């Protein structure tokens, strides 16, 4: 028998095909004003007793802030695919439809890659231009940024390559002077003005049009990929506002990056494009496979790292990642990277954001300072997470959270006021990291290359530090303290804010400082034991830019707890393939050190702060609890509300549903035996009864509700019964009361369950929901169990 999957649910397939059906999506927990859905279409044995012949509005969808039933969704997709395969053997048209259905996934990946790459290119170009607008305008055309404005100028010098007559600062445009205290003050004030203007526009647009466009988006995307539904979080308004405000927030000079929010942007693109394909529009599990691929696309366009993006999605974001999704993620990331390369937003004909070309290989002795950077990154990551979560909790629990616009403006003003005097905090995060990764040559005009010239023959030899370098080191030290403090209060504000670039900037500064220190140590002590044999006088031994790169990876790893994907992203980001071992050593060390203070990364910490129902796959359940310890009802709770398979009237069922706030009810043989028969959803009951009253004659409050296969004998004058067996899940997931909770938690994680029933010798005892497990784990970890806000 071939059954249409567009309207039918797994529960109906039980009635029609008598095959195994996984549990439906109802849960015996507080309803909170929302409800679950399940399919309820099909044909019963008699027209009089089946109220569900035709598709009903709302069937097969989920309400906001609910968790999907993974097993049911996957079963629906299998039946849909089976139907298409069977029909393809019957006609050419059906065969073509089968081919188009198989190809639709790859077409969707192509569209996601193209759209995300185009948006990322536009964001990069716009952010670069608006960042430069804070410093001045181009006379050749206001739409040129500083670099493009001076490209065609014949009056630039190698020492002052960024200065050309075509680009004028605000002081030159307003007062006609480029030097002097008054010109400095004018430029200072204009810098603060534009920073406040951009940040004000960003927070106002977010607050007015798309509140979900704030923040990084990665914690929510992790939760969504685990099966949670947040309506509007991946919608078109969120995409539009996030794209615009991301440019404004980055251009304002706030200590944030655009890389994390680009993952959110890519997932918004994927979610919108999913509506073009029925297979993905009507199946939440299939849509989450696309969103997993979109997360890879986001990192691909953020860093120009397609392979790292795929690994990022696999390691850090995705909850369910089958092999098919891996291939499609790779294809989508490839398309996105190609699109971004075609746009060429960086103007250097390269895909990578920070291209490096170090001239000296690293030595085994340098592993010690690399590991030291890993320790610093782990300590910084643990400190940052605790400080940022404390600040965000303060924001949520005090009046500070009631004034997001004022908070953003105050932080933006403070950032601009303190960052302008220091050239390393005045420049954008990407420019700063690029400067720190730079390997000095003899003619380099950067302050970080302010060495004393002692040899003309070898421009790459280690040299003693000059006054310019010492000044730069002091500025970098101040920039390090400033970045560490300001990033704590910036991340989590009501504007789009990524954490990759600020974390990398902190690590790059620390790494550059250590690298210069090692370079000078080697120069003045080249005869010491640790340098003897590989660092002779006049040789180029130490590369400070490499230390900056390793430090950046260490700090980012300490904050996010990424390992494999981070190393791949870093060598794709810089092109430094031969420096994988230092990156691996620092990244692994930072994770070990940070895990010693707490196993949660920043994204998991924000998920817990927001109370999302997320079962962390990496977290081990180390307690010896049993299912009976976690199930409801507890000892002092009211008895479990159940339905009997026969004997209850429509009025009694309606009364039970109205008097409780549960989303589903177990069905038992009788109140005395409590032998489990199945599970039925609150929403199923309400829609079924309402539909029966409207479409069937004789259904009244005294009509008996029957969940059995055969109708029991009724008195001659009794109203016709209402048969609801086809909306009942005949095979709900069950565990015994003595099942260890670590096994139960694994079942919930690997099958994506929302509830399972607890039995003893076939008798129903209680129910365990996902929320119950999360509350129990919070209680065991001495956390507030009421912090789990959603079901």
Explain briefly what this protein structure is:
Helices cover 53% and strands 5% of the residues. Strands 3-5-6 form a three-stranded mixed sheet. A three-stranded mixed sheet has the order 4-7-8.
Note down, in words, how this protein is organized.
It is built from 28 helices and eleven strands. Helices cover 53% and strands 5% of the residues. The protein is elongated, with a radius of gyration of 31 Å. The strands form four sheets. It has a three-stranded mixed beta sheet with strand order 3-5-6. Strands 4-7-8 form a three-stranded mixed beta sheet. The chain has a three-stranded mixed beta sheet with strand order 9-10-11. Among the domains are: 366-606, Clc chloride channel (Orthogonal Bundle); 627-781, Roll (CBS-domain). Helix 8 (236-251) runs antiparallel to helix 9 (259-274), helix 11 (284-303) packs across helix 12 (306-317) and helix 12 runs antiparallel to helix 21 (564-574). By secondary structure, it is mainly α. The chain has helices at 10-17, 70-88, 92-133, 146-151, 170-174, 181-209, 218-225, 236-251, 259-274, 278-281, 284-303, 306-317, 323-343, 367-397, 404-419, 423-426, 429-437, 467-490, 500-524, 544-560, 564-574, 580-595, 602-610, 627-630, 650-659, 682-695, 741-751, 770-780; strands at residues 136-138, 167-169, 643-644, 648-649, 664-668, 676-681, 704-706, 722-723, 734-736, 755-760, 763-769.
């Amino acid at each position: 028998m071939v059954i249409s999957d567009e309207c039918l649910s797994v529960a109906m397939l039980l009635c029609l095909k008598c095959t195994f059906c996984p549990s439906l999506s109802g849960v015996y927990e507080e309803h909170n004003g929302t409800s679950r859905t399940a399919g309820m279409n099909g044909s019963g044995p008699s027209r009089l007793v089946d109220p569900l012949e035709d598709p009903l509005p709302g069937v097969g969808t989920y309400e906001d802030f609910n968790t999907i039933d993974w097993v049911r969704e996957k079963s629906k997709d299998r039946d849909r695919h089976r139907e298409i395969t069977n029909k393809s053997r019957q006609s050419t048209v059906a065969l073509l439809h089968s081919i188009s259905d198989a190809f639709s996934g790859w077409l969707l990946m192509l569209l996601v890659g193209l759209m995300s790459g185009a948006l990322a290119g536009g964001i990069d170009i716009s952010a670069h231009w608006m960042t430069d607008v804070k410093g001045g305008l181009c006379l050749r055309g206001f739409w040129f940024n500083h670099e493009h404005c001076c490209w065609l100028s014949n009056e630039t010098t190698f020492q002052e390559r960024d200065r050309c007559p075509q680009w004028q600062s605000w002081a030159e445009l307003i007062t006609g002077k480029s030097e002097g205290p008054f010109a400095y003050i004018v430029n200072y004030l204009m810098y603060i003005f534009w920073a406040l203007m951009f940040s004000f526009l960003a927070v106002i647009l977010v607050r007015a049009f798309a509140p979900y466009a704030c923040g990084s988006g990665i914690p929510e995307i992790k939760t969504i990929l685990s099966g949670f539904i947040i309506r509007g979080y991946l919608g078109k308004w969120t995409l539009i506002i996030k794209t615009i405000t991301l440019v404004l927030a980055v251009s304002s000079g706030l200590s944030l990056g655009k890389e994390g929010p680009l993952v959110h942007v890519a997932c918004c693109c994927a979610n919108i494009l999913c509506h073009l394909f029925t297979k993905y529009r009507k199946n939440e599990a299939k849509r989450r496979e696309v969103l997993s691929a979109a997360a890879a696309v986001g990192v691909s366009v953020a860093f120009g790292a397609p392979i790292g993006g795929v690994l990022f999605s696999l390691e850090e974001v995705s909850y369910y990642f089958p092999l098919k999704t891996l291939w499609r993620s790779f294809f989508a990331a490839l398309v996105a990277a190609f699109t971004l390369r075609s746009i060429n937003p960086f103007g250097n004909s390269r895909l990578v954001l920070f291209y490096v070309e170090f001239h000296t290989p690293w030595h085994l002795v340098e592993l010690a300072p690399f590991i030291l950077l890993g320790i610093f990154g782990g300590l910084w990551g643990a400190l940052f997470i605790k400080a940022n979560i404390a600040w965000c909790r303060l924001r949520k629990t005090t009046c500070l959270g009631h004034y997001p616009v004022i908070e953003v403006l105050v932080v933006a003003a403070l950032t601009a006021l303190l960052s302008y005097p220091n050239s390393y905090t005045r420049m954008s995060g990407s420019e700063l990291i690029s400067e720190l990764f730079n390997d000095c040559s003899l003619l380099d005009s950067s302050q970080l290359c302010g060495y004393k010239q002692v040899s003309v023959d070898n421009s790459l030899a280690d040299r003693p530090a000059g006054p310019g370098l010492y000044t730069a080191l002091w500025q970098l030290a101040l920039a390090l303290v400033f970045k560490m403090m300001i990033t704590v209060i910036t991340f989590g504000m009501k504007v789009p804010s990524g954490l990759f670039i600020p974390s990398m900037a902190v690590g790059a500064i620390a790494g550059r400082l250590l690298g210069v220190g090692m370079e000078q140590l080697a120069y003045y002590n080249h005869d010491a034991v640790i340098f003897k044999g590989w660092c002779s006088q006049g040789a180029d031994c130490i590369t400070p830019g490499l230390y900056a790169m390793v430090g950046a990876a260490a700090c980012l790893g300490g904050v996010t707890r990424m390992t494999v994907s981070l190393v791949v992203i870093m060598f794709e980001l810089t092109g430094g393939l031969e420096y994988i071992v230092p990156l691996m050593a620092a990244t692994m060390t930072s994770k070990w050190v940070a895990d010693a203070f707490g196993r949660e990364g920043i994204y998991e910490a924000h998920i817990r702060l927001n109370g999302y129902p997320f079962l962390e796959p990496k977290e081990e359940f180390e307690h010896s609890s049993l299912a009976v310890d976690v199930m409801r009802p507890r000892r002092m709770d009211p008895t479990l509300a159940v339905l009997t398979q026969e004997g209850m009237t429509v009025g009694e069922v309606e009364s039970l549903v109205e008097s409780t706030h549960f989303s589903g009810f177990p069905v038992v043989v009788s109140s005395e035996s409590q032998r489990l028969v199945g599970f039925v959803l609150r929403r199923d009951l309400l829609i079924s009864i309402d539909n029966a009253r409207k479409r069937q004659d004789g259904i009244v409050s005294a009509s008996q509700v029957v969940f059995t296969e055969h109708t029991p004998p009724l008195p001659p004058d009794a109203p016709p019964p209402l048969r609801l067996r086809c909306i009942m899940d005949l095979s709900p997931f069950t565990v015994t009361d003595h099942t260890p909770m670590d096994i139960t938690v694994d079942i919930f994680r690997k099958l994506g369950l929302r509830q399972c029933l607890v039995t003893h010798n076939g008798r129903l005892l209680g129910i365990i929901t996902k929320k119950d497990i999360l509350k129990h784990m919070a209680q065991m970890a001495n956390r507030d169990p009421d912090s789990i806000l959603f079901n």
